[in-house]
Amino acid sequence: MNKILVIEDEEFVRENIMELLEAEDFYTVGAANGQIGLELAFFHLPDLIICDVLMPIIDGYGVLKVLRQDPLTAKIPFVFLTAKAAKVDFRQGIEMGAHEYVTKPFTRADLLSAIDQQLHKSAISN
Fold it and tell me: pTM of the predicted model, to two decimals?
């Protein structure tokens, strides 16, 4: 069973994502902000992280930057959730090691496709 960490400051969105993933037999852990997300990432070592780009305290790029600097978490696949943003923002995330962006609002199929692709790529590279 794959473990997914969902870092999303909007409670309604976070809970909906977690319910959707649990219905698909994923084990989920949720964090309400980037600081809690970092702590949970190091404690749980998830198979994949879904993270909102724009959050207070530590944004998604800050979370990614910290996780990429530690050998334990450096290779965890990262899927960013974002409102429509400038392509420059996407480029910055990809250069930092983000694997994919899913734009809000997204469909169940969009999210599951991104997760499946990243878990598959991660399994091949490990």
Answer: 0.89
